[in-house]
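User: Please check token order:
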Amino acid sequence: MTEFISRYVCGLATYCKEYAKPKKFEAAMLEAIRSLILCDGNGTLTNEQRFVSHLQKALTVPQMVVRDCFDGFQRSGLADLKSLVKPIPLARKIVEECLAQGVPLVLATNPVFPEFMIKARLHWAELDDLQFAHLTSFENSCFCKPQAGYFLEIATLFNVSPQDCLMVGNDTSHDLSAAAVGMETYLVDTWLIDREESSWPCQNRGDHSALQFFLRECLQ
């Protein structure tokens, strides 16, 4: 993910070079992403609105210029990132088994990316034909992980109690923080992101095989 974000930001910068030097654009964009994660939203502005506003102010360009940069990257820049996303066959199998049991699934990736980027990653991971009930993106979300509002926003959307949800992820802070609103969590440690600032308890933990067994037991 570190390399993915770096190349994503660098790629976007090339579509704004007429208005901002690439290094200035990259620094502004990374700061905008950091702001989304660190600054709790108020629930009235989407992450997209907050993100574009931050870039517009930092680069002193019209917001339409920022949006045009994203449009250009969507049309011509995505292929440069494809090699960084690989399918995990067992992950697909796990999703298929949950769907077969009628479990509504949310692709709860941190919504600092636009929807087209989320869908591209799904396609490269060979999951885009599966019926997720919802994909979080910066257009439809007002909060980010590890903010409590992010998880509450999803639960509210589906009119379910957080206590009836399971958050599955590989990040000890961004995913395990779902426990703050009462969600049960499962830490997939195959490719663990262990953030030193994390203080959340790990309720369940294991690799993809262990997760598959855990879900089969739960859904019997």
